[in-house]
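Sample 1 of the test manifest.
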Amino acid sequence: MGQRVAIIGAGMTKFVRRAQETGKELAWQAAKAALDSCGLTLKDIDCISMGCAPDAFDGVHMKGEYLSDGSGGWRKPYMRHFVGGGTGVFAPIHGWFHVASGVFDTCLVVCSEKMSSCHPHPQGAFKTIFDHTTEQPLNPTLIWIFALEYNRYMQTYGISKRDIALVSVKNKKNAIDHPAAHLPMEITVDDVLNSELLAWPVNRLDISPASDGAAAIVLAGERTARRLTDKPVWIEGVGWNLDTAYWATRDLAYPRYVEKAARMAYEMAGIKEPKKEIEIAEPYDPFTYKELHHMEGLLLAEKGEAPQLLVDGVTQRDGDRPICPSGGLLGVGNPISAAGLMKVIEIFLQLRGEAGKRQVPGNPTCGLAQAWGDLMQIGTVIVLKNR
Amino acid sequence: MELEKMKLGATPLKESDLKEGKVLSLAMTPDIAYAWDNGVAIGRYLEELKNGRIIARKCNKCNRIMLPPRMFCELCWRATDKWVYCKDTGTVNTFSICYINWDASRIPKGQPPHIPAVIHVDGASTFMGILHVLGEVDPDDVKIGMKVKAVWKKPEEREGSITDIMYWKPLRPAQGRKTAGRR
């Protein structure tokens, strides 16, 4: 590769149920905050990597173009990325390519999402992600595939709903310390189990909220990064992998595509023992069980054993391996692409020791963020180090 | 930098802000229609559903019998070789008991929930599952690993759609044991 790449700045908006701002206004707020955080202006930026989720949410066709001015993309090399829920980590991966190649020295990565425009609920727009001929006539809701995967995961390893519900308790509590959080709450396992049953085994509090919001980071090549900050956070590994779209033919208990994405990133980052070397992680948690499913796919837990780590407190912010210290999608909120980038920002802040009340103890040096999406078939992984 | 020291954007709105006209918004309901071509593989699949049969496609290189059928093997990256009929029985790989509709509206109280399932169809290769729904079964009696059989529409009512199978029902009646419920 041409050069090492660092994250040198970050910014985001609050995540809210419905924002007065348009998607481009949110993109602008986050992008401007990210540039301000490292003392740059748009003139210093060589290219833009933009991420946003399905056009159907906004009812705006070619959303990449629509959001381009708010993202600072006009009269610049601009590229939109989209892999469903995986987008928020996919966009910085591609920003990394732009800079690592040596073609560009700086890249602004922006992710912006309005989930509130689609009525009565963005779930309706999700129907069209199912195969139009063999699945849509059955009137599926997106929650079906999560419920089906959740059930398969639970039954394969003999995991209880009670243990899985703890993810929601932990993450919503962590989010109390996140200044952008949409749904921070102090709740109990029973609150989760007694919340509205939507699609057994999925209850309402197993699901992250639909939010509006935006996030942005600034990437720079090594020389520029060292000139602009004394705390660069290096992108040491990236990986992504896509599995079959015939989702019903997959092993639903284990996300093999996440493992493949993680192995790609680990190899690039020289990580041989992820359980020891990844000190802090933000796996994607749009649903409770997904945090655990993803920890296993990321090789941070043995198959079926992530729930025990959770029960034992290992994944708490003050545990041996903090997982989703930000509060995750369950607590901070889920403006799809921006939620994934929020996770990258959390690891960036944690590795700089700038995560405020959310700061994990022990001065972590290596962390990971991961997102997941398309038709439950893509894993996107980024490994960060502060030295 | 710390998020705590930054002024974070996004102005939260309440439903009432819109209702009371404190902020303005514009609504649009698109009126668009699509007609999707069924293609070669799925076209035949649907024709056979109309005949009351489930058909798959075999790749002679990896020997997979694939459902839904496809004209090319995505793993061997070559054309598939022949049509193979499957049985209309299978095994529940996983399922859900669903109380909401596709648009997130709630199923009215007293009406039965949807029971979507991934069904591994007999005669297709291991793990060749399809999405469908279960019926004629008490939600509490559904189990992973349960054998099920397709319940077809009457021949004259079939139209060449995945819904020509109305639902799948247990191959054997429930054992009479009533569980305490799933929660």
